[in-house]
Amino acid sequence: TRFPDGTWRRRYDGGLVVVNPSDWDLFLELDEIHRDASSGRVDSRFLLPRRDGRIYLPAEAPKRPGQWPEPEPLLTWDGPAAIFEREGSIVVRDGNGLAMLLDEHGEVQSLCSGGLEPIVAVKPVLVRDQHWRNFAFEDVRHETSSDTTLTFTGRRTDRDQSLGFRQTIRPADGGFSIEYRWRAETPLKLHAFRQAVHLSPRTLGGKTLRWPEGEVLLPKETSDSPNLAGGITSATLPIGDRGTLTIRLPQPALLVDDRFYRGRGYLLAIHPESGEIPAGREWSYTLEFVSGRE
Hints:
Elements: E1 8-12, E2 15-20, E3 26-36, E4 42-48, E5 52-58, E6 82-86, E7 89-93, E8 98-102, E9 108-113, E10 116-127, E11 136-144, E12 150-158, E13 161-172, E14 175-184, E15 188-199, H1 201-204, E16 208-211, E17 214-217, E18 227-239, E19 243-257, E20 266-277, E21 282-293
């Protein structure tokens, strides 16, 4: 059974099997004392590392720590405002329940709000032809400044085409902003340049996405037509009972049910550039993710 925290659980006569397929470390709260068959820890509260699974056996012994040390730092969405990394992943938290997890290239792999995961990716996709092969990353570096700003710099390349980028993540009022700056290092001929925000059907299926001019019900099952709405510059998502997450976009976006094309969920996308771009041309845009209450 899939639980709201993203874990899969199955109860057997002799114990409980729990799998955490997510990119986040999770804390598991059980009703009774159990023993972790792997580490030997006896407790009712366990850390379940990301992309891992454990067997928990009923126990009557007193609580005791396990033989395995817990990973440090913990990649959890909850906690004080911070930027930290482990195993090629970087976590940015605002201290108020909003957190994003990025890979070493700066692509957002998950964004959590209030313990739920409404966003499963934020990334630019650059392709030169109809085969939709994304430009590769080269020479990517990142650094953190004293004001909790995270900056990535590097290049995106595909054979004879190249462009440099600078991506900056900053605290914003009630959330985060992600600024992208691009510079064509060679002449470019792009079939598509898509800045995409991938929304999770598991969290948002059956919920209503709203923007100032309208609203749309996000279908639980794959829709018969991929296009759900257009002209969206500020999308507000419901989070839990009364929470919200608003995505502010620099230009009107198209909302697509990407499962129609065998994608992973709903796709909120803008297209900042396309076609032929001369060497030396620069452009930029910013996305904002802001928590709120209804």
